[in-house]
Amino acid sequence: MHFKIRTFIDGSGNELSVLVDENNHPLFWPNVFATMEFRSKSPKTLSAALRALGMFELWRESKELPSSNDLASGTTLSIHDAEALAMFLQLTRPAQDEEALTNAAISKRKVIRLESVRKSNINKNNSKRYAGKLEAANRIRWVAKYLEYLRDRSISVTSNRAEQQNLERKANVAIKRLRRLTPRVSTGTGDESLVGIDDDIIRHIGDTLNPLNTSPQNNPFGSDFLRARNHLIWSILAETGMRREEMVKLKVDDVDYSTHRIRIRESKTLPRTVPISDKTAQAFHNFIMNHWSKLQAKATAHGRLFIGENGSPLQNGTVNLVFSRIREGIADVPQNLTPHTLRRSWNERYSARIDALPTQQRPSESEELQIRNRLMGWSDRSQMGARYAKRHIQRKADSIAEDLTNTLAAPEVKTDDKQSS
């Protein structure tokens, strides 16, 4: 049996993905779960989660275990199934195919393949048998959530309280075991990956991208439309720290020009509302009035704010190309500049702003973390805010240590007591 991901664009310009079988029929329970759980997340996250569910279906079919419909109706996996599933989800795709064929040969010898990730022949001599720890951990978490969803579904259709408790107990044994086998992913000392760029560089790029700057030697974008749109892209990302995926999904109605607020409705993590400056609000107004509204209504019926010159919704890849042009066309721009670099820069600016507040106005450490998490769209339990705060503290420690080193290295100034008396 084959499983694969089908991706398409709906009438509103949204990218959607579904998990289908060999006959291109959508799998009911995996798609219902993914739609409910990941509908506000990025298309990339949705597709990755569906691939993990496809891997689960591949493993389940190869083992001839109960279907998702059975699992939603009261059947449960055993603790031994959970251990085998955890091992399977940690394999690379070729190794999963090999494992599935082995399982199938033991049963009815039917060939089962999942081709949502790659279409290649099985290589039994593949030296890389295991996927990266982070990827494997995500797969296990997504499948564990799916099993929890099916567990809750099976409990809801059972009216007898004793049966409900028995179902929950039996299902939890396997789910808890699966979660315990999630690879531990250490962030190590990877704080360097959180480094942004200086505010002076951000302002320099913003000034260069100003639509009024039409010099081809400076502004790397030629048409009036592209200059206005790309300047707005830069301003919003720099001021809000939102993700690229969140920005491309913004609709015109999400921007409130009068209050200078943007509502981020479609997010990888949490929806939220963020402020923008007067200058950026005016850039939004100018782009809408001078360019967006001039296109035919049919071309912009999707309502997306960021579009191509023909009205089609902007894609992530186009944003990457914009940043590539910025790196190549503007002097003194760091080569590590990406949309996510501006998110890191926002966090550094936030930390510096908190430090600059008078002691009596400064929020507590927990309040600072909650504010950061809310503005970045992270949950209260997220560790990302703490990582950025840690990075800022390390930079401050390095600066203080450098000052101490320079003080020690500086020659001591001696005064002549006799001459001064």
Question: What would your notes on this structure say?
Answer:
With 421 residues, the protein is mostly helical. It has 2 domains: 2-180, no CATH class; 192-403, Intergrase catalytic core (hpI Integrase, Chain A, Orthogonal Bundle). Helix content is 53%, strand content 6%. It has 16 helices and 6 strands. The strands form 2 sheets. The protein has a 3-stranded mixed β-sheet. The chain has a 3-stranded antiparallel β-sheet with strand order 4-5-6. Helix 2 runs parallel beside helix 5, helix 4 runs parallel beside helix 7 and helix 9 (224-240) crosses helix 13.
Shape: globular
- Output the CATH homologous superfamily of the largest domain: Intergrase catalytic core
Q: Please estimate the helix content.
A: 40-55%
Low-confidence stretches: 106-127, 187-193
**Count of distinct strands:** 6
| Rg | 27 Å
